[in-house]
User: Which sequence fits this backbone?
């Protein structure tokens, strides 16, 4: 077995570009309907005309290796390419360029990949069969996947217990809350001891208690079955608590990759100063040698107030710089505090793509730090 | 979390001896699961079942009343080939139309519904063949539409004076299998346009042109094709419906004559039995349409996988 097929996931130079979608004509006199729509789509598919709509680059030359038996976190803001990456790994999407293996299977062999991957997405509960109960839904999926009936019965019970839904097993999806529906599909993913479990923002819709139940479950399951778990989140804090390794994505590019400790270490030369001001814009930023970036943070309920996170080089002058920059000229600051940066802050900093300042699969923290800053 | 110690394989192995047999078995098991699910859903709509029977009764009654307006003219309208009982003629027409409409129109509709309510996403995440969900979803249509055969024939015979000659039923069954297969080939082509041409809403062109236009107007559901201009009779020869109506009426209508040519293609081949020509044409259409439909559907799925339109919610 080659090195690549030993990885749970190995992607090399994967790029995904979605074709552009023409601007909708809905609501106008020119709305495409009936035979006009058939003809337009036929012409488009046959490429008799060029598609003028701009295409969307979701992933850009991404190379990634995920070792088996680990929890791997993908973090990034909305539109960073996390779901696209998950769908490629799940066999639901074909990359535009690039190659890869999932649990030793070539990305092109999507049917075999589906045998090796359990995939749960945020809106996965849309796939529930509404005329069937929670238990029937899970057993139906087990049968579709070819699981023998006696085993399906046992595993369904185990999975429902695991997500704390055994008491609600006879309820229909319409009788369950969104969070409970989300747990039903999590149970569905636990049916199979597949080598790889993909969880796309699995904590969305869950209350804090069940987020903790899920995280404990994932850790426990990994120990028991040795499965690799890949999960995405746009909140880095949750990921820090559970993932063995984290990749930070932004605009389809891999920004950073490493263990939570490594990523935190890469920020040790950055300090964060949180500034609460009255409604105002910031004065022109001083030299980048002193201040790296500043971003506005939405604080619900803070009317007529603005919160800024200012990223500066760790130094004794950092606080003074901010005082000179914002406080003295405006006089409208109501609160100012220096804090340690978290992983979420990485995404706010000026960056260059991961690999631009490193070679091969090098993940040395100083190199990342260089590339990042 | 507890785990099972049972040594039962989760799914059939992907390699090794017996793989193909196990793979087939897995697909059948999935189809069976679909069947049970659809039966359960069908059962839960009891009022729908009453409406369903009322609809058949009204349709049959409509043609009974139409038939009464042409009392005495039926022999000249139907010609020598199809006997003299218009109710028998039309009961066969209506029944075949229901059957073939199910196989032709429903694949697209089922895919469309399943795509928008999110269940297709789930099916495409399972390791079953991409064709299995399509067949499985069709179970609902089969449960709904195929039993109508008994009601159309039953109402026709018991209430409205239709008579049938059931002696050649094995041959009639063979023709039924052939036209259903040809119809399903068209159905697969129709479903493939959901992904190939991104026609996600409304009607797609194959169902509209073949079923709603050609079959309704030209194939001879309610009248023989001989009432049409010759050029349109030739157009009617392009679709499987025409051959199914012709053959089954010749076989099942009392007084029908198997040797009288009706369709233009039968007239240009006078040496061959019209029923044989119908069978040959249906077989040819099946052999062409079924693989073509399966190929197009597979291509559609792969195109959607490339463009990112395979799933809606996941």
Assistant:
């Amino acid at each position: 077995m080659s090195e690549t097929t030993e990885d749970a996931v190995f992607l090399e130079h994967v790029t995904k570009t979605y074709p552009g979608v023409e601007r909708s004509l809905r609501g106008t006199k020119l709305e495409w309907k009936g035979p006009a729509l058939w003809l337009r789509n036929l012409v488009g598919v046959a490429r008799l005309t060029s598609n003028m709509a701009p295409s969307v680059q979701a992933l850009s030359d991404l190379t990634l290796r995920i070792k088996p038996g680990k929890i791997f976190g993908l973090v990034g803001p909305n539109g960073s390419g996390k779901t696209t990456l998950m769908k490629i790994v799940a066999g639901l999407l074909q990359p535009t360029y690039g190659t890869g293996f999932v649990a030793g299977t070539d990305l092109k062999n999507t049917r075999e990949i589906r045998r090796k991957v359990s995939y749960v997405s945020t809106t996965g509960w849309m796939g529930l069969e509404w005329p069937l109960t929670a238990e029937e839904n899970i057993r139906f999926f087990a049968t579709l996947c070819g699981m023998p009936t006696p085993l399906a019965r046992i595993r369904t019970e185990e999975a429902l217990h695991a997500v704390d839904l055994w008491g609600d097993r006879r309820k229909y999806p319409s009788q369950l809350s969104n969070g409970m529906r989300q747990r039903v599909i999590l149970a569905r993913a636990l049916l199979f001891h597949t080598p790889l479990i993909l969880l796309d923002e699995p904590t969305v819709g869950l209350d804090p208690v069940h987020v903790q139940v899920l995280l404990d479950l994932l850790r426990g399951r990994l120990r028991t079955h040795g499965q690799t778990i890949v999960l995405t989140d746009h909140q880095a804090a949750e990921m820090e608590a559970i993932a063995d390794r984290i990749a930070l994505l932004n605009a389809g590019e891999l920004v950073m990759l490493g263990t939570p400790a490594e990523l935190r270490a890469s920020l040790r030369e950055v300090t964060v100063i949180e500034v609460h001001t009255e409604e105002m814009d910031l004065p022109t930023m001083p030299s980048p040698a002193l201040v790296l970036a500043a971003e506005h943070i939405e604080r619900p309920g803070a009317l007529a107030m603005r919160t800024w996170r200012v990223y500066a080089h760790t130094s004794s002058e950092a606080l003074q710089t901010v005082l000179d920059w914002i406080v003295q000229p405006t006089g409208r600051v109501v609160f100012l505090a220096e804090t340690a940066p978290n992983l979420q802050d990485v995404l706010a900093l000026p960056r260059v793509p991961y690999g631009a300042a490193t070679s091969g699969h090098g993940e040395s923290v100083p190199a990342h730090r260089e590339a990042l800053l | 979390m507890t785990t099972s110690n049972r040594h039962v394989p989760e799914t059939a192995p992907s390699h090794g001896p017996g793989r193909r047999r196990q793979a087939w078995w897995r697909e059948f098991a999935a189809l069976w699961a679909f069947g049970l699910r659809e039966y359960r859903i069908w059962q839960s709509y009891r009022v729908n079942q009453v409406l369903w029977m009322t609809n058949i009764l009204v349709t049959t009654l409509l043609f009974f009343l139409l038939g009464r307006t042409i009392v005495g003219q039926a022999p000249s309208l139907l010609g020598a080939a199809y006997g003299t009982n218009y109710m028998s003629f039309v009961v066969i027409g209506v029944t075949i139309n229901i059957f073939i409409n199910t196989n032709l129109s429903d694949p697209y509709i089922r895919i469309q519904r399943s795509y928008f309510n999110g269940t297709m996403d789930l099916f495409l995440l399972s390791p079953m063949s991409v064709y299995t969900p399509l067949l499985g979803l069709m179970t609902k249509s089969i449960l709904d539409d195929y039993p109508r055969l008994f009601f159309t024939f039953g109402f026709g015979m018991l209430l409205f004076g239709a008579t049938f000659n059931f002696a050649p039923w094995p041959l009639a069954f063979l023709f039924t299998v052939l036209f259903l297969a040809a119809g399903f080939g068209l159905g697969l082509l129709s479903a493939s346009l959901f992904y190939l041409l991104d026609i996600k809403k409304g009607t797609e062109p194959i169902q509209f042109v073949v079923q709603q236009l050609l079959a309704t107007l030209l194939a001879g559901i309610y009248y023989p094709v001989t009432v049409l201009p010759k050029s349109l009779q030739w157009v009617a020869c392009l679709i499987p419906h025409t051959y199914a109506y012709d053959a089954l009426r010749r076989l099942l209508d009392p007084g029908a004559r198997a040797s009288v040519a009706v369709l233009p293609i039968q007239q240009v081949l006078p040496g061959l039995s019209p029923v044989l020509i119908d069978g040959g044409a249906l077989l040819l259409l099946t052999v062409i349409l079924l693989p073509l439909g399966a190929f197009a559907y597979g291509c559609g799925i792969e195109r959607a996988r490339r463009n990112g339109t395979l799933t809606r919610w996941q």
